[in-house]
Design goal:
Elements (H helix, E strand, L loop, with lengths): L6 E5 L1 H4 L3 H4 L5 E5 L5 H6 L1 H6 L4 E5 L2 H5 L4 H18 L4 E5 L9 H14 L6 E3 L2 H4 L19 H20 L19
Parallel strand pairs: 1-2, 1-3, 3-4, 4-5
Length: 194
């Protein structure tokens, strides 16, 4: 059992297919990846994640929304809802938000838009951000064909490239204070100054 508590991996088939226990043998792993899940689906089942009381959460969600023609705004709003809910209900849990992974280059403009917004939002709820694009995308936003056989799901080489980014990100996450409680300002009503 890790001194940091369980690590919950939350997402869709990319997460579900991960061999997290093998890749992180020193972790107490919970796999909340469900094939086909969209951001709406994760919101519906968020209580399962919260009830498990993990010490850390690793979130990767959003690519299936694109297949359903959901807008970037819809995806961003839902991921923000997920993050705010997790932070509210699990104030001591460390949260790592991962960028929506590249897929076919035709999706690149929307995914970049989503990722830009999430990168800006993550710090507001004291979550860490992991940008996977430099490791996985070609210049035009296409998922590197060496990492996928269908322009979406990862093959063995794709998971290796992901884990190479994720492992140090999790180490950095553990170095951050878990608490995200808002700083309480003193009540200055009635204060007349020095």
């Amino acid at each position: 059992m890790s001194e940091f508590g369980a690590t919950a991996f939350v997402g869709d088939s990319l997460t579900q297919a991960g061999r997290w226990e093998e890749w992180f043998p020193d972790e107490d792993v919970l796999n909340f990846g469900v094939s086909g899940n969209t951001t709406d689906d994760v919101i519906v089942r968020l209580s399962e994640v919260i009830d498990s009381g993990p010490g850390s959460i690793v979130l990767l969600i959003g690519t299936n929304d694109l297949a359903w023609r959901r807008s970037a705004e819809h995806i961003v709003r839902n991921v923000e809802t997920i993050l705010v809910t997790l932070r509210r209900d699990l104030p001591e849990t460390r949260i790592l938000v991962q960028s929506v992974m590249p897929r076919g280059h035709e999706f690149a403009p929307e995914i970049r838009d989503v990722n830009r917004h999430l990168w800006q939002f993550a710090p507001t709820i004291h979550a860490q951000w992991l940008d996977l694009w430099p490791a996985l995308a070609l210049e035009d936003g296409e998922l590197n064909p060496a990492y996928s056989d269908d322009r979406l799901h990862l093959n063995e080489a794709g998971y290796s490239a992901w884990i190479a980014e994720l492992r140090p990100a999790l180490e950095r996450l553990r170095q951050q204070p878990p608490s995200s409680r808002a700083i309480q300002l003193p009540d200055l009503r009635g204060w007349t100054g020095p």
